[in-house]
Amino acid sequence: MSLLDFARGPALQWAAVIFVIGMLWRTVGLLLMLRSRPLSKDRKSGLAGAGVKTMFSRFLLPKVFAKRVGFQFLLGWVWHVGFVLTLFFFQVHVLFFKGVFGFSWPALPNAVVLPVAAVTLGILLILLVRRMTNPMLRYISNFNDYSSVIVTLLPFVTGFATFTHIPALAYETLLALHFLSVALLLVWFPFSKLFHVITVLPSRYILGVKFWRRGVEA
Amino acid sequence: MTRKELTLGERMQARGVSRRAFLRYCATTASLLALPPAMAPRIAAALEAQRRPSVIWLSFQECTGCTESLTRSASPSIESMIFETISLDYHHTLQAAAGHQAEEAREIAMKENWGNYLVLVDGSIPTGNMGYSTTAGESNIETLKRVAEGAAAVISIGTCSSFGGIPYANPNPTGAVSVSDVVKDKPIVNIPGCPPIPAVMTSVLAHYLAFGSLPELDHLNRPMVFYGQNIHDRCYRRPFYERGQFAESFDDEGAKKGWCLYKLGCKGPTTYNACAVLKWNEGTSFPIESGHGCLGCSEPNFWDAGSFYSPLSTSTRLNAGTVALAGAVGVGVGAAAGVAARARQKKIKSAPAKAWTPTKAEAKAEEESQ
Amino acid sequence: MTEVITKQEREEAFAMFYGMAASIGELAEPAPEMTDEERVERAKEVFLKGIDNNVAVQLDACVHCGACAQACQFFLGTEDPKYTPIHKLDLLKKVYKRELSPMSWLNKFLTPDITADDLRDQVELVYDSCTMCGRCNMVCPSAINIGDMVALNRSAMAAAGLAPAELRYMRDGQEADGTIFGADEDLFNFRIQDIEQKLGFEIPIDKKGADVLLMTSGLDIHLFADATGGAIETLHHMGVDFTLASKTPGYEGANFGSLSGYDATKKKLTKDSTAAIEELGVKTVIVPECGHSYPALRFGAAEAVGRDVKFEVMTVSEYFGRAVMDGRLKLEKKDHPTPIALHDPCKVGRWGGVFDEPRAILKACGYDLHETESNKQYNFCCGGGAGNFLLPSADKLKRVGYRIKMGEIEATGAEELVVSCGSCRMNFEVGKVKAGDSMPVESLAAIIAAHLPQKDKAEGDRA
């Protein structure tokens, strides 16, 4: 079995299995945990609506924090969007999903996706360097933080190498490495902070409700 | 069997092949083999002077496609003439002899040329029940072992003998293996392809005849000059790939415009062969040019590397069923974890609160009460 | 307004009080003896009790982006990475990951357990360098409730016998006497009689069935009689059927069980107050200008007694602000030539939702309010909330916090600051002295009283 056969076949299959198991394990486990409910009267009504509002309002940065957090907030925004666009709307990736799920959706032209992916990769590198050099970030960072950034940017690096077919390695080796880097991302995802994909909106909802019952828009 | 010791030059003249045509063939061979032009006269001289070496062609689990490829051409070509330079002493399809006569011819050739003859093999070798494929009551694997023992080199013609090919494909009912799985102590050249390009076969033979050695090989024992680059890199449709213009089906606008066939499953990017350069039918066309993606037929395991029509970017083993099964397991484990956490939470909640320190007054009161 | 306490009296009292506050650490009982194992066990028990589904989801949503640091005045003022708010939750995260998270089966092998030394290092992080103001909650892209989880940390510290001596002293005192700073019933009665004399009318005490109960606090009894006096005068002016209570659970609004992290004390104090309030049968309770007393009673009463309570809880600014907004209280617009700034106390503002009411009052008084750049739910803490104004070990941090807050106030061009929280006021006063600033800091309740219309005009309103 060649490296590519391994990467396209068992590696990806097992990575996806681990990904799905891990994600559901953590999600279902969280859902089942006991929740305490406040007994005091709410100051405002419409808690669920306020929670949903916070889920979306936190996509924007309150003006008062713009000066200090604006840059990292913007970077965060751009790379997340870039990641989604590249993952789900690059022609070849659409084919991949069609292969897995049996249906597909329109892809974006390469002329759009490639620059987006390049910017995304660039930002991830900036964020990694920033995490290593900013004293505060370095202080709070742990293995989970570094590994998650690296594991996220590897598919971009290998993806670019594959698409541009860098001469250093054979195409099938590059493609295999790309598949393997994706497999690594899938395996790492549920066990790391990348899991925030599931928890970030519920977490916002929780604070939105908590504060709105006190009369504060969070 | 007659054994006239004529040189190739003499035989060519006898056949009416002009000296000019012969030299052109030598020049072409030199360029195909990526040798400097100065080597062309040397090839010519060597071929002209060469006595016909004995070649034994063994056919095992095969379809004769490789032989067809080698012999079937619109008009007698210079390539086909290469067989005039060798003494093809045994070949099921081409030899006139049959039965014991044929086997006898092989035995004689082996004895006379022991240690010097070439063995060409097409077809894979079954290792299961020997009854799957025998010749004159002898299993293929025995034949190969015995014949290869006295060979100067073994050349695997086609994907089956090179890598196992279609007989080797899952579930491999005959336990088929490649030549290199059986023969360990002889130089082996693999010329994979289903079938291989005729010029590639003849060029390797010409190299052997001219220099008495085998051409430079890659890690899969394939001649570097023909298998060093993938089809994708040499494909005339490559610009459409770069631009992201793909045919979505075999009859859409993109297909008509000759766009890239990646999405239709073309294996060009992972297939190392000279199809896009040498082409087929005397340089007329090759699969991609005629509108179909490359199947990757010259690569190991090409039959099991996913559908011919699913793009390279897709997984070969992953599907919604696997995902769903994993999902069920995940929900199960998660539910178990959640229930365990709940039980723990309830236990902690119901435990009497000891987690705060009594004040001095309370401590005293407690002391007094005891 | 009738002056219930002169400026000089206040300054003298303040100096005395400050001297007393500075020595309470030495007066505290020795910290409870405990082995390291016991400390860890108790802290973990508190952590685990506090981790519910909401906490778990929020802890799992953190990506260590570090934005919270940029909202925290203690980080901004020191640039010390250890003051990054989310770092203060590391122990809680560890316990969660190891013991309760859905993946605890795996994490047990990968996450080291917490140690008593971890807990000792944590003390500075959750007491000195955090006032649980919750400003970090507002910047967090995952909206993690860091403030409340620091409160949970304080509870764990207290359970592990590691609460700072000053807060232990305060908590022990309130556990024993029901009040703080020795503001016992005698002193309370003395102060009320004093105010009564100055205001010239009888203050109802322990009047069953009154509409409104006005609470106060040790801090106001000792120092900020203007706040209590202003509230009483305004209630009287409005003709509200109100009363004060003469027993500690009925008048003391502060809750040092809550600030120190002693959950049982917190619960006990709130429970006692709730019982006293329900016995009086009032409809509304006005908690004093004391930040944390508002959430402690407003949101804590039901939790303490395990059911919802019948009475409504409002803070001073909220009660009078609503009265102004719906026309029950008319204030006299006066000419104020210089702009004023407003400090939203964290516990009343960001944690209580009282924003519009104090602004309505200031508008009705004719003030030109200049908002600080960070205002309402984004407000900076005064720097010494959550009992920190009593911690000498946090002095440097308090100054840093004060500097940032005062910087924003000064930038507004305001020449006067109005506050509706006693401990914020304390911290501003101390900060001013240490920094050599001179911005006058006023109680909102006193300002209301100072803008009550002339009696004859008010008579008509009352009818």
TrEMBL record, chain A:
<feature type="transmembrane region" description="Helical">
    <location>
        <begin position="108"/>
        <end position="129"/>
    </location>
</feature>
<keyword id="KW-1133">Transmembrane helix</keyword>
<feature type="transmembrane region" description="Helical">
    <location>
        <begin position="176"/>
        <end position="201"/>
    </location>
</feature>
<feature type="transmembrane region" description="Helical">
    <location>
        <begin position="73"/>
        <end position="96"/>
    </location>
</feature>
<feature type="transmembrane region" description="Helical">
    <location>
        <begin position="12"/>
        <end position="34"/>
    </location>
</feature>
<protein>
    <recommendedName>
        <fullName>Nitrate reductase gamma subunit</fullName>
    </recommendedName>
</protein>
<keyword id="KW-0812">Transmembrane</keyword>
<dbReference type="InterPro" id="IPR036197">
    <property type="entry name" value="NarG-like_sf"/>
</dbReference>
<keyword id="KW-0472">Membrane</keyword>
<feature type="transmembrane region" description="Helical">
    <location>
        <begin position="149"/>
        <end position="170"/>
    </location>
</feature>
UniProtKB/TrEMBL annotation, chain B:
<feature type="compositionally biased region" description="Low complexity">
    <location>
        <begin position="351"/>
        <end position="360"/>
    </location>
</feature>
<dbReference type="GO" id="GO:0044569">
    <property type="term" value="C:[Ni-Fe] hydrogenase complex"/>
</dbReference>
<feature type="compositionally biased region" description="Basic and acidic residues">
    <location>
        <begin position="361"/>
        <end position="370"/>
    </location>
</feature>
<feature type="binding site">
    <location>
        <position position="66"/>
    </location>
    <ligand>
        <name>[4Fe-4S] cluster 1</name>
    </ligand>
</feature>
<dbReference type="InterPro" id="IPR037024">
    <property type="entry name" value="NiFe_Hase_small_N_sf"/>
</dbReference>
<dbReference type="GO" id="GO:0016020">
    <property type="term" value="C:membrane"/>
</dbReference>
<keyword id="KW-0408">Iron</keyword>
<dbReference type="GO" id="GO:0009375">
    <property type="term" value="C:ferredoxin hydrogenase complex"/>
</dbReference>
<keyword id="KW-0004">4Fe-4S</keyword>
<protein>
    <recommendedName>
        <fullName>hydrogenase (acceptor)</fullName>
        <ecNumber>1.12.99.6</ecNumber>
    </recommendedName>
</protein>
<keyword id="KW-0812">Transmembrane</keyword>
<dbReference type="GO" id="GO:0046872">
    <property type="term" value="F:metal ion binding"/>
</dbReference>
<dbReference type="InterPro" id="IPR001821">
    <property type="entry name" value="NiFe_hydrogenase_ssu"/>
</dbReference>
<dbReference type="Pfam" id="PF01058">
    <property type="entry name" value="Oxidored_q6"/>
</dbReference>
<feature type="domain" description="NADH:ubiquinone oxidoreductase-like 20kDa subunit">
    <location>
        <begin position="63"/>
        <end position="207"/>
    </location>
</feature>
Automatic annotation (TrEMBL), chain C:
<dbReference type="InterPro" id="IPR004017">
    <property type="entry name" value="Cys_rich_dom"/>
</dbReference>
<protein>
    <submittedName>
        <fullName>Fe-S oxidoreductase</fullName>
    </submittedName>
</protein>
<keyword id="KW-0479">Metal-binding</keyword>
<dbReference type="Pfam" id="PF02754">
    <property type="entry name" value="CCG"/>
</dbReference>
<feature type="domain" description="4Fe-4S ferredoxin-type">
    <location>
        <begin position="53"/>
        <end position="82"/>
    </location>
</feature>
<dbReference type="GO" id="GO:0016491">
    <property type="term" value="F:oxidoreductase activity"/>
</dbReference>
<keyword id="KW-0411">Iron-sulfur</keyword>
<keyword id="KW-0408">Iron</keyword>
<dbReference type="InterPro" id="IPR017900">
    <property type="entry name" value="4Fe4S_Fe_S_CS"/>
</dbReference>
<dbReference type="Pfam" id="PF13183">
    <property type="entry name" value="Fer4_8"/>
</dbReference>
<keyword id="KW-0813">Transport</keyword>
<feature type="domain" description="4Fe-4S ferredoxin-type">
    <location>
        <begin position="121"/>
        <end position="149"/>
    </location>
</feature>
<dbReference type="GO" id="GO:0046872">
    <property type="term" value="F:metal ion binding"/>
</dbReference>
<dbReference type="InterPro" id="IPR009051">
    <property type="entry name" value="Helical_ferredxn"/>
</dbReference>
<dbReference type="InterPro" id="IPR017896">
    <property type="entry name" value="4Fe4S_Fe-S-bd"/>
</dbReference>
